[in-house]
């Protein structure tokens, strides 16, 4: 359970920091994500508020130790990686590769914890 807590804490952290950045400082966030395209601020702000809402939901999974949702978090993040990769291929904006790296940095340990780590009894 400790490893599940650690991997989801990473998710809560990047969702909270990223969400606040996108909501409050959308242009700075876009620059930090290495975007080479111009986007409207309103889209980034909308993404920011959605990320904050997701951070709250994931934090509650961690807080209440409701690990039955842990596999779903892995499958959803895997789908996010696929979509971000398709968006990169479509737009050639490196921002999508940076976002891919951020998600993958937490997804790979989660996959290990869920599928390869033997439970301690």
Question: How would the blueprint of this fold be written?
Answer:
Blueprint: H1 2-24, H2 26-32, H3 41-63, H4 70-91, H5 95-115
Helix pairs in contact: 1-2, 1-3, 1-5, 4-5
Label this structure with key terms.
79% helix, 121 residues
Strand content: under 5%
Alpha-carbon Rg, integer: 15 Å
DSSP summary: helix tally: 5
Q: Return the domain count.
A: 1
Order of helices and strands: HHHHH
Overall average residue pLDDT: 95
Distance between the termini: 11 Å
Secondary-structure class: mainly alpha
- Unreliable runs: none
- Count of DSSP E strands? 0
User: Sheet with the most strands?
Assistant: none
Helical content band = over 70%
Gross morphology is globular
